[in-house]
Amino acid sequence: MVQSEADTVAQLNALAQPTRLGVFKALMQAGPDGVSAGELARSLDVAPNTLSAHLTVLCRAGLTSQRRDGRSIIYTVEIPVVTSMIDALVNDCCAGHPEACAPLRRAQETGCGDAGTGRAS
Amino acid sequence: MVQSEADTVAQLNALAQPTRLGVFKALMQAGPDGVSAGELARSLDVAPNTLSAHLTVLCRAGLTSQRRDGRSIIYTVEIPVVTSMIDALVNDCCAGHPEACAPLRRAQETGCGDAGTGRAS
DNA sequence: CCATTATTTCAATGCTTCCTGAATTGTCGC
DNA sequence: GCGACAATTCAGGAAGCATTGAAATAATGG
């Protein structure tokens, strides 16, 4: 998944706001089941309409998607988009300074890298 | 280097703007030698005063630092801060979804991970 | 000291963002 | 269909951001 610089800016911008970063964290921890808008509003202590605006920003950046379940609307993270965003960041990072990435690898070695992508090459 | 969520927001916000992301890329590619403000203004085609404002944002977020060299002011990236920013992002990412990190590892395997950190464990 | 170059600071403008309250749309159980 | 719940949309105002032109600060060379 390759993306333009404008995409990266939009994704960074979507996360560059306390409430939205909080939403992102909550959705990441929730995993594929996702979280409803109301539940997010309650747990983050934000007005429902305010939160709705933030969720729109996250969705337009492609970082999240929504699905309806009864009366609720469930939000989930679009993992591939998150991945390509970090990818873009890391590639720019490594461009002139490979050693900057070493701590990243360490983060993955502490239980993050070998959990079921299905790719075994 | 541990940082607060507010730090992460400030760092993401600093990069969430086309000109500033361009500056960041240029400084990353330049490496430790850095680039002068005027050179950045010329190569990115931005007015010097406008660029100065953007450089201030990057510095206040901790992502860059400045040093004077004659009449010029040279800007360089603060690699440890960049590293901890990506670290924060990746940790939130991995929290509920370890497989999202796999492509990151691949990015490092393509020539990014084993370049002179001095750590050989 | 003076002119020149490099960069920043200042003040003002237009634009965007964030939040709030009220109204609207969509869904469920009866 | 009706009342209740869940979420979004709309219109508003306050605050912040990006850009510009003009002025100020800093350093170099003669």
Write the layout of secondary structure elements.
2 copies of one chain form a homodimer.
Chain A: H1 5-15, H2 18-30, E1 35-36, H3 37-44, H4 48-60, E2 64-69, E3 72-77, H5 79-96, H6 102-109
Antiparallel strand pairs in A: 1-3, 2-3
Chain B binds a DNA duplex (30 and 30 nucleotides) through helix 3 and helix 4.
Pfam family, one (chains A, B): HTH_20
Keywords (chains A, B): DNA-binding, Transcription, Transcription regulation
Protein name (chains A, B): ArsR/SmtB family transcription factor
Terminal CA distance of chain A: 19 Å
Give the helix level of chain A as a range of percent: 55-70%
Named at the architecture level, the CATH assignment of chain A is: Orthogonal Bundle
Radius of gyration of chain A: 16 Å
Mean pLDDT across every amino acid position of chain A: 83
The CATH topology of chain A comes to Arc Repressor Mutant, subunit A
Question: Structural class of the secondary structure composition of chain A?
Answer: mainly alpha
CATH top level of chain A is Mainly Alpha
Main beta-sheet annotation of chain A = 3 strands, antiparallel
Number of domains of chain A: 1
Give the uncertain stretches of chain A in residue-range form: 111-121
| Helical run tally of chain A | 6
Largest interface: A-B, 51 and 51 residues
Percentage of β-strand residues of chain A: 5-15%
**Strand order of the biggest β-sheet of chain A:** 1-3-2
In CATH terms, the superfamily of chain A is Winged helix-like DNA-binding domain superfamily/Winged helix DNA-binding domain
**Net shape of chain A:** elongated
Q: Quaternary arrangement of the chains shown?
A: homodimer
Helix and strand element order of chain A: HHEHHEEHH
Total number of β-strand segments of chain A?
A: 3
Keywords (chains A, B): DNA-binding, Transcription, Transcription regulation
Domain HTH arsR-type (chains A, B): 1-97
InterPro entries (chains A, B): ArsR-like_HTH (IPR011991), HTH_ArsR_DNA-bd_dom (IPR001845), Metal_resp_trans_reg (IPR051011), WH-like_DNA-bd_sf (IPR036388), WH_DNA-bd_sf (IPR036390)
Protein name (chains A, B): ArsR/SmtB family transcription factor
